[in-house]
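Hey all, quick one. A colleague (J.T.) asked me to put the zinc ion job into the tracker so the inputs and the structure tokens live in one place instead of scattered across chat threads. No bug as far as I know, just bookkeeping. Sequence used:
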Amino acid sequence: MILKVLLVVGIIALVYFIYKKSQSSAKNLKKEAKDRANDMVECATCGIYCELDDAILSANRYYCSKECLEKKR
Ligand SMILES: [Zn+2]
């Protein structure tokens, strides 16, 4: 009976350990994604700085919006 309890406790501890490890690596991934999202680029038309994720890349220039991209053309 005690052996069974120890086995269950051991399995729970193992699952908890794996869960914690996977959670911390997921947190690191999220932090990396956030750092990348914070990269700011200057709009080639209006000069406003916007996040790289939101910027439109055209002919090696970044634009903050479709309006700026069309204005340049
Ligand atoms: Zn712009």
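Adding what we noticed when we looked at it: The chain has two domains: 1-38, 39-73. The radius of gyration is 24 Å.
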